Amino acid sequence: MIFNFGDCRLDVERRELRHRGAALHVEPQVFDLLVYLLNNRDRVVTKDDLIGSVWGDRIISDSTLTSRINAARRAIGDTGKSQKLIRTIARKGFRFIEAVEVQPAIGLASGAAKAGADDSDALGAPERRAIAVLPFTNMSDDRQQEYFSDGISEDIISALSKQRWFFVIGRNSSFLYKGKSVDIKDVAEELGVRYVIEGSVRRAGARVRITAQLNDAATGGHIWAEHYDRDLVDVFAVQDEITNAIVAAIEPQLYAAENFRARRKPPTSLDAWDLLMRALSHFWRVTKQDNVVAQALLEKTISIDPDYGKALGVLATSHSFGAHMGWEDMATAVPLAERAALAAIQIDSEDPWAHSALGGVYLAMRRIEDSLAEFEVALQLNPNFSLAQGFYGLALIYTGRWREADAAVRRALRLSPRDPFSAIYHGVAAYAQFTGRNYDEAIAASREAIRERGDFVGALRVMTAAAGMAGYADIGASSLQELHRTQPNVSLAWIANQIPWNLDADRDHYLEGLRRAGLT
């Protein structure tokens, strides 16, 4: 069945939602919620109706339901304020009120199009225009200004990522080419993109010159190039101008239809932005020491501009990530992350960093449904946010949804195939395969994670448990020895207390694998 309404077309069998012809990424629960509202558009559906149909009568919080309703509205171009399509009926429930045209599906979708199915084709060859933004070259005399040119590149990546018709390679993968002489075609082939953006920044006193060039790797030609000479006070306007031009060059029809404008709230102080860029340059190095330095810079940023939502969002992420990595005490870091994330959301509710950080906070607090809801909001706001994709996969595992978790981390790896966080994504993939009783696959993914980051205790734990369940005594013994070296305090009791499983069977399965390998 196909539902046509407004500018949208929802194909139930293909599990596909399109807006003005462009395919949209919609989380499975949000898609199911839309289908239920459309099928029951002749009446008001209650909260209990939705919980029974979409969640299978599982207990969920009001915030989870609200977040899914809001996500459904955003997906179809509605808002909680206007309620043009989905109306909230006070103390009753919800109703789909837009006129709907129903038509039979042209043909049944293949099994791979169903919910939770393998989306490797979409990952291997993205339907959206795939773009990589290389780090802009610092042409200033001062080598210490690298963070400034990096910040220009990162803001352009962030702005482009908010446009759903683009598949934007993550910052961490494209930044691996920093300082290198590269061939555009080679970069495009390695990252799986068609378009590559490169440029340079020259900062001198109160002036800045930014050059940017958009290349079509398939033809080797330049689609567009421009340079901008501005006072530093205009740097945010220049970034928006560059991003507008890039979008106009790649998708002129969409540009005309959508009147693209990057929705970013610039800070009130250039000094605050300057400090945030310094902080991010440390955060992306993914070390305990750099995380501490990043936090100090972020605290200084916020002291200059208390309403800088992105700085608060990154600070929240830094504390949340530090807690999950064991770099910070959970009892101290989680409340700090929660306060910063909630403050960021209050300032700018469309900041994906803040929602992703809050997802990590709720994960640590064992509020798994709320965690999933926040990660899904972050991914609605920025579908190319690989860090949120990776930790969303982890949250899915704790609910037993390992196939969806595996798909999420594969999306993270596709978005940023050469990411400093990729060891963590491989570790989550290993955990997903272990939960699905695929022990050889779990060991292979664990090895990849450990190859990239030898101190990653999560991957060592999964490898030990998988070897124990598979009966690979030698692998189990060697990985357990390394686990004890890396995490001296590890024990069955510690793991049972620290990991927030929703399902007793998954907890018992994991502990049994570790027990068989010799952990006590």
Any idea how many domains? 4
Count helical runs.
Answer: 23
Give the overall average pLDDT. 82
Distance between the termini: 54 Å
CATH class placement of the largest domain: Alpha Beta
Number of strands: 13
CATH fold-level topology of the largest domain: Rossmann fold
Question: Ranges with pLDDT <50 over ≥5 residues?
Answer: 106-127, 251-264
Biggest β-sheet description? 6 strands, mixed
Instruction: Give the second-level CATH assignment, the architecture of the largest domain.
Output: 3-Layer(aba) Sandwich
The CATH superfamily label of the largest domain reads: ABC-type transport auxiliary lipoprotein component
Helix content: 55-70%
Q: Decide which structural class fits the backbone.
A: alpha+beta
- Give me the Rg, rounded: 23 Å
Specify the overall morphology.
globular
What percent of residues are in strands? 5-15%
Structure description:
By secondary structure, the protein is of the alpha+beta class. The protein has four domains: about 1-115, Winged helix-like DNA-binding domain superfamily/Winged helix DNA-binding domain (Arc Repressor Mutant, subunit A), CATH 1.10.10; about 130-260, 3-Layer(aba) Sandwich (Rossmann fold); about 265-380, Tetratricopeptide repeat domain (Serine Threonine Protein Phosphatase 5, Tetratricopeptide repeat, Alpha Horseshoe); about 405-520, Alpha Horseshoe (Serine Threonine Protein Phosphatase 5, Tetratricopeptide repeat). Helices cover about 55% and strands about 15% of the residues. The chain has 23 helices and 13 strands. It has helices spanning about 30-40, 45-55, 60-75, 120-125, 145-160, 170-175, 185-190, 235-250, 250-260, 270-285, 290-305, 310-325, 330-345, 350-365, 370-380, 385-400, 400-415, 420-435, 440-450, 455-470, 475-485, 490-500, 505-515, and strands at about 1-5, 10, 15-20, 20-25, 85-90, 95, 100-105, 130-135, 135-140, 165-170, 195-205, 205-215, 220-230. Strands 8, 9, 10, 11, 12 and 13 form a six-stranded mixed sheet that branches.
